[in-house]
């Protein structure tokens, strides 16, 4: 790398740091001013002012994180699904970050590829599209043809993203604390950020992602409905990942082009992919962004982007299995025990009455409550869950974000919306019970 290039990166890092620090200072000033003004407001005016301030803060956060891309944009995407612990106005603004990011100039992509692979573009590709196939928070994908004729997609990481990861996360955590935007204790927030940092560092290592893809390809090799692209090992580095192209239709196209029977098959594919990943592989694809999935007319599901893989400890899978089974059986004492093991319940906090769990069961387990099909096209689960959020907010001394299952929860929540978009009408109860039974049998045999 030339001296000019070396000089650019620290300068870019300083600019990025100042942008984040400026956002933090702005948010802190706004919320401090709000606190002072509250001394002159009645209760109703305080609520209105707080909601307005949260919406403005959310907009400022979304604009800044989207512009900077990288780790903070990825974290913003995750946070947009955390409406239980973020003000709704902020979570709604952050949902904008779920959409495809603006593309990086092709000359930047060219430079990254040539630096990483050590050859000129012309020596590597007979064709490479200048327009991205997809653009995301930490990198973008370009379609091309190798010199040997193989059609591929090349995932290229944006320059400087890895270097700025720690400082970005530190600044964002400060911003959340100073604005009191996230309603959890400091210790829990620190643990969450540590978990997020660990996953992001793995996601920034494309050699690790290539290994993840091979792990999942091998595990699902005998499932004709799960398609995972093969990698081109000699063209994979920490910041460039080359894969054989596997195409399919985007989720947005499926609802208008596919019959219900095929859409139901997609839903079953997705459920089987999640359940087998949890209970058999003990590792989950934890980025449910619709852009990471494609759909084919034969009913098969193509899965991309294996950077964010959460490996699950056996104890966590056991606790997850036991909690779900207990909820199905209305065993609320066992549910409470399971939630303690998973870290959802605050250690040493007061007991939770059975009625609280009873009220949540028809919401979170509704698709699995019977052997009959559940129609996601008319689902109100999300509406019902949001209506219950105020009850959760006043129980923050009893419940907290679970670090162990944060990415598993992200996967399940994200794919709920995929099933809604598919309009799936499938009997999920028997499917879930089969996996729960198989896991229990497997564990019993393993302990003999």
Report on this model:
This protein is of the alpha+beta class. The protein has helices at residues 3-37, 43-68, 70-79, 88-94, 106-117, 121-124, 161-178, 186-203, 206-219, 251-257, 260-281, 314-328, 332-342, 354-364, 381-393, 406-422, 428-446; strands at residues 125-128, 134-135, 139-146, 151-157, 226-227, 240-244, 283-285, 293-295, 301-303, 309-311, 374-375, 425-426. The strands form four sheets. Strands 1, 2, 3, 4 and 6 form a five-stranded antiparallel sheet that branches. A three-stranded mixed sheet has the order 5-9-8, covered by helices on one side. Strand 3 and strand 4 (151-157) form a beta hairpin. Helix 1 runs parallel beside helix 7 (161-178), helix 7 runs antiparallel to helix 8 and helix 11 (260-281) runs antiparallel to helix 16 (406-422). The longest helix has 35 residues, at 3-37. Residues 1-9 have low confidence and may be disordered.
Terminus-to-terminus distance: 58 Å
Number of distinct helices: 17
Content of β-strand: 5-15%
- So what's the overall shape? globular
How many beta-strand segments? Answer: 12
Q: What percent of residues adopt helix (DSSP H or I)?
A: 55-70%
Give the ordered list of helices and strands: HHHHHHEEEEHHHEEHHEEEEHHHEHHEH
Class from helix and strand fractions: alpha+beta
What's the mean pLDDT score? Answer: 84
Largest sheet: 5 strands, antiparallel
Q: List low-pLDDT spans.
A: 1-9
Q: C-alpha Rg, in Å?
A: 23 Å
